[in-house]
Write a structure and sequence with these properties.
Blueprint: H1 4-13, H2 52-64, H3 69-82
Length: about 80
């Protein structure tokens, strides 16, 4: 019987480079496309450096409000652009 570490490494080895287990198709939504903003043509990814403490507070509040960071950023940026 494999130990916990062996079991973990066996599961990791079974993963494809894209992160999906071998032999399983990615989840699909209506229309046959993968879900999420990453696969949508009307979204783009951005990056920024923010203070660690700010990041922790933002993550906690987003979790408490069941909200995604992309939703918050979109709201803030649209408000800023409309000024």
């Amino acid at each position: 019987m494999p130990n916990d570490a062996e079991s973990l490494f066996n599961r990791i080895d079974a993963m494809q480079p894209g992160g999906e287990p071998q032999g399983k198709e990615p989840r699909r939504v209506k229309g046959g496309k993968r879900g999420g903003k990453r696969s949508r043509d009307d979204y783009t990814q951005i990056g920024a450096y923010i203070p660690v403490e700010t990041h922790k507070q933002v993550k906690a509040r987003l979790y408490a409000e069941d909200k995604q960071l992309s939703e918050l950023l979109t709201e803030l940026l649209e408000k800023w652009l409309s000024e």
